[in-house]
């Protein structure tokens, strides 16, 4: 065991945030704010997202009213916003890896607490739409049950107390900077899973920063490891996307020597939000050409510093001609790794070819190979 590993605190319980960590609240909030602000002639462009993530409802409302110069008070804003939010609560989806994590920890008897800056009633309403979640948490605490919400440590200290654990034994999982600061102030070990893109640099106080819950390694912190990885891949619930092949940035073949069959992202805004940046794999269907193995990146491509999140599949076949404009159907069945930056073009290309080898080998396994015959690929 290395010195760095031997110095890590081992955890006996997990304290988890809800909004932005387990469920995609931000998407629903943004949709409501976009419509709400339009009646005042204002446009929600997401510029305040970083300011409100992880804040209490009162703090978030105050920020929006003040920064957008709304002609209403905070109380009036909340009285109009929350009925709209409550009506959309059933549409808030769990984030990738959330159900897997909760089932895993619960199945191994690891005590869990849900500690959120939302009110207790609001928390229970949200999780009521996610089957089995409430029964998995030994403790549920909202900011209305403590003196101060995050970044104060009160929520996590109270959660640890109710679990009869010392805070130093607790592993906190958080998406926001206020949440990370609260966990550290409580004396806990903290894993950050940033809910906003390109904000990793703000989480320097966390003990670890990961791309998504899919990348969590519980054994690093003394908790039972996941056992569901197969041949360096993680099976995921299959998702299907498709559309005409478009020209991308022109760097696939020219710069990388890797011809990608890019899809437009304009019809897949929801999928781009729901699925973490990273490398995935599956099957690709071209109506006139057949079905092929495929490895795919989704994300910001840090080496090239994309300004928009992209979908870039690589069909693992040597085509003799381009097929721009042809309809491409994809079934994504597994996950390989999180998005990463690289020190050189050579190291990036080498990693992409390594991803190809992992995908090609995995897609021969029965659990993945069965999707090759899915009717969606040849529709």
TrEMBL record:
UniProt keywords, alphabetically: ATP-binding, Flavoprotein, FMN, Nucleotide-binding, Transferase
SUPFAM superfamilies: HAD-like (SSF56784), Riboflavin kinase-like (SSF82114)
Keyword presence, Flavoprotein: yes
The protein's enzyme class: transferase
Pfam families with a match to the protein in the record: Flavokinase, Hydrolase
EC number: 2.7.1.26
Pathway: Cofactor biosynthesis; FMN biosynthesis; FMN from riboflavin (ATP route): step 1/1
A GO BP entry: FMN biosynthetic process
Designated name of the protein: riboflavin kinase
Organism for this UniProt entry: Brassica napus
């Amino acid at each position: 065991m290395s010195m760095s590993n031997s110095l890590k605190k081992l955890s006996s319980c997990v304290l988890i945030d809800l909004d932005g960590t387990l469920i995609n609240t931000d998407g629903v909030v943004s949709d409501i704010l976009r419509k709400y602000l339009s009646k005042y002639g204002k446009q929600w462009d997401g510029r305040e997202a970083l300011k409100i993530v992880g804040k209490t409802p009162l703090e978030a409302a105050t920020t929006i009213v003040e920064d957008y110069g709304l002609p209403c008070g905070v109380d009036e804003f909340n009285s109009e916003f929350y009925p709209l939010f409550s009506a959309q609560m059933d549409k808030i989806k769990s984030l990738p890896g959330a159900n897997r994590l909760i089932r895993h920890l619960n199945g191994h008897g690891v005590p869990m607490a849900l500690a959120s800056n939302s009110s207790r009633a609001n928390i229970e309403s949200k999780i009521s739409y996610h089957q089995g979640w409430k029964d998995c948490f030994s403790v549920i605490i909202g900011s209305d049950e403590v003196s101060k919400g995050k970044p104060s440590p009160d929520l996590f200290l109270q959660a640890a107390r109710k679990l009869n654990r010392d805070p130093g034994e607790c592993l906190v999982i958080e998406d926001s900077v206020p949440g990370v600061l609260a966990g550290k102030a409580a004396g806990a070990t903290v894993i950050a899973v940033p809910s906003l893109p390109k904000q990793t640099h703000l989480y320097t106080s966390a003990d670890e920063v990961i791309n998504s819950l899919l990348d969590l390694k519980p054994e690093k912190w003394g908790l039972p490891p996941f056992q569901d990885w197969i041949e360096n891949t993680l099976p995921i619930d299959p998702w299907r996307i498709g559309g005409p092949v478009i020209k991308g940035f022109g760097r696939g073949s020219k710069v990388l020597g890797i011809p990608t069959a890019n899809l437009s992202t304009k019809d897949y805004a929801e999928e781009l939000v729901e699925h973490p940046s990273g490398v995935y794999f599956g099957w690709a269907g071209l109506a006139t050409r057949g079905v092929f193995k495929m490895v795919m990146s989704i994300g910001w491509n840090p080496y090239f510093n994309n300004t928009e999140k992209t979908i870039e599949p690589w069909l693992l076949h040597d085509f003799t001609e381009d097929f721009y404009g042809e309809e491409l159907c994809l079934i994504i069945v597994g996950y390989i790794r999180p998005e990463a930056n690289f020190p050189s073009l050579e190291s990036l290309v080498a990693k992409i070819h390594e991803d190809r080898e992992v995908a090609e080998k995995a897609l021969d396994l029965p659990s993945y190979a069965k999707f090759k015959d899915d009717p969606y690929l040849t529709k």
